Amino acid sequence: MRLHKLNRRRRSALATGFPNGQAREDLITHSAMEWAARDPQGPAKWATEKREGLPKERALSVIATTWAETDPVAAATFALNSMKPGRPLDDAVVGIVQRWAEKDPANTAAWVGQYPEGRLKDAALDNLVGRWVDQDKVAAASWVSGLAAGSGQDMAISAYASKIALTQPAAAALWVERIGSEAIRQQQTESVSRS
């Protein structure tokens, strides 16, 4: 029987028997993603039960990101409760934010707002604001303006200014002036000037 005709659970189980390597990891990840698109709880349970030999964190990341298409709240909860800190979790959070912001940017913003300041929150803010501006520029601007001063607000302002720079360069320049960090403000000023 051809591999693509096997059901997702059997394909995932079969993949774990392959020798370690990139091809094995790619097969497991792809199988988990396809399975999660139809039944996210199935591969979530399967991946969390696996121990050795499974590129577990990468599979969990793909499952959480895929799950966010249908239930971003459950996907976020799953990712935060099932994954270790690191690149796969960061990728999952950004993927969840991207999908969730498409449907419900205000609740996505509330979730992202709970993160501590740092690289992950900055990446989440950048993705959130970019998608929110596409849907409702005024609501996004209002939310960004209401953030507490600090690196999070600087990142959100930077994302907002970058998003509107091509169509509204003067407005983007005014936003950039509000950035507290001199380094980020200078970088964004140059970016907006090129626009």
Based on the model shown, name its key terms.
2 domains; mainly alpha; elongated; 12 helices; 195 residues
In short, what is this structure?
The chain is 74% helix and 0% strand. By secondary structure, it is mostly helical.
Give a structural overview:
- The protein is an all-alpha fold.
- The chain has two domains: 1-103; 117-195.
- It has helices at 8-15, 22-38, 41-49, 56-67, 72-82, 87-103, 105-113, 119-135, 137-146, 151-164, 169-176, 182-194.
- The N and C termini lie far apart (55 Å).
- The relative contact order is 0.07.
- Residues 1-6 have low confidence and may be disordered.
Portion of residues in helices?
over 70%
Number of domains: 2
How big is the Rg?
20 Å
Terminus-to-terminus distance: 55 Å
Largest sheet: none
Q: What is the succession of H and E elements?
A: HHHHHHHHHHHH
Coarse morphology:
elongated
Given as residue ranges, the uncertain stretches (5+ residues, pLDDT < 50) are: 1-6
Q: By helix and strand content, what is the structural category?
A: mainly alpha
The overall pLDDT, averaged over residues, is 84
Strand content: under 5%
Number of helices: 12
User: What is the count of β-strands?
Assistant: 0
List the helices and strands and how they pair.
Elements: H1 8-15, H2 22-38, H3 41-49, H4 56-67, H5 72-82, H6 87-103, H7 105-113, H8 119-135, H9 137-146, H10 151-164, H11 169-176, H12 182-194
Helix pairs in contact: 1-2, 2-3, 2-4, 3-4, 4-5, 4-6, 5-6, 6-7, 6-8, 7-8, 8-9, 8-10, 9-10, 10-11, 10-12, 11-12
